[in-house]
Amino acid sequence: MVFSFISDTKRAVGLLKQYQSSLTSPEEQALKTSVEKVSSIFGSHLFQALLGEVCFGVNSNGSQNK
């Protein structure tokens, strides 16, 4: 389950970077900067660790471990 979220996140980062590279006009620079920030956050080790914590904090039947 965790590996699925991590691979989905990596795929999302790749798609965001691809989209970011398509933003070339001056009017799109603010959006390009925002997309860069989001992809940077999603690709960070901290985000990956937090995602892992969320996944490991829920057991197989969906209830939270205590």
UniProtKB/TrEMBL annotation:
<dbReference type="InterPro" id="IPR015143">
    <property type="entry name" value="L27_1"/>
</dbReference>
<protein>
    <submittedName>
        <fullName>Si:dkey-31j3.11</fullName>
    </submittedName>
</protein>
<dbReference type="Pfam" id="PF09058">
    <property type="entry name" value="L27_1"/>
</dbReference>
<feature type="domain" description="L27-1">
    <location>
        <begin position="7"/>
        <end position="51"/>
    </location>
</feature>
<dbReference type="InterPro" id="IPR036892">
    <property type="entry name" value="L27_dom_sf"/>
</dbReference>
